[in-house]
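User: Sequence recovery, please. Input:
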C-alpha cells in the first residue's frame, strides 16, 4: 500500500520485518486493521513518540514539544477502492482512543510526506489530505518537518523526503 501515491515506497522485506518487530515490542503501540474477508485492506499504527527514530523526535523537540507527552500516529494506509467509506476516519478515532486510554499523552502527532504538485508520478485525480486532517481536528505544525529516507519506485537509491507534522490535542475524560 505504501507503493501508492504519495509515498511511492520501494521497500524490502528485511527492513519491514525489522520495523514491525521493533514496533510490536514497543510498550503502548497500537495496530488498527481493516479487512475485507481475509484480505487486509488498510491499517493504522501508533506508538509513544519517544520510542521512535530521532528523525521524527528531533524536529518536535527542537520546536519545544515534550516528546514524552506525544503519541505518534506512525502510518495510516488504505487501499484505493476502500477510500471514501469512513474507514480512514475510524483509523484515526481508534488510534486517538488508544492514546487517550493510555492516559499519559497530551497530543497525537503524525507526519505526511510532502510531494511537489508537479511530481511526475502524481495521479491526475490525486487530492491533498490537508482538508481531511483539518476536519479530523488536526493542525499543521508549520516549520516542523522531519526528513526520512527511502527509495522511491524506479529509483536506484534512497533520498530523504520531507515529512510535515500535524498535531491534535487529546481530550481526556
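Assistant: Recovered sequence (173 residues):
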Amino acid at each position: 500500500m505504501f507503493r501508492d501515491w504519495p509515498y511511492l515506497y520501494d521497500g524490502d522485506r528485511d527492513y519491514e520485518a525489522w520495523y514491525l518487530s521493533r514496533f510490536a515490542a514497543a510498550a503502548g503501540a497500537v495496530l488498527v486493521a481493516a479487512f475485507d474477508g481475509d484480505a487486509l485492506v488498510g491499517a493504522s499504527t501508533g506508538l509513544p513518540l519517544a520510542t521512535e527514530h530521532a528523525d521524527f523526535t528531533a524536529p518536535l523537540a527542537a520546536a519545544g514539544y515534550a516528546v514524552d507527552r506525544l503519541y505518534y500516529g506512525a502510518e495510516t494506509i488504505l487501499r484505493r477502492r476502500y477510500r471514501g467509506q469512513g474507514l480512514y476516519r475510524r483509523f484515526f478515532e481508534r488510534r486517538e482512543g488508544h492514546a487517550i486510554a493510555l492516559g499519559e499523552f497530551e497530543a497525537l502527532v503524525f507526519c505526511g510526506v510532502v510531494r511537489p504538485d508537479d511530481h511526475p508520478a502524481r495521479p491526475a485525480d490525486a487530492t491533498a489530505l490537508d482538508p481531511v486532517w483539518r476536519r479530523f481536528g488536526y493542525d499543521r505544525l508549520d516549520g516542523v518537518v522531519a526528513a526520512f529516507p527511502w527509495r522511491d519506485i524506479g529509483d536506484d537509491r534512497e533520498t530523504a523526503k520531507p515529512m510535515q507534522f500535524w498535531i491534535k490535542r487529546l481530550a481526556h475524560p
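The mean pLDDT is 86.
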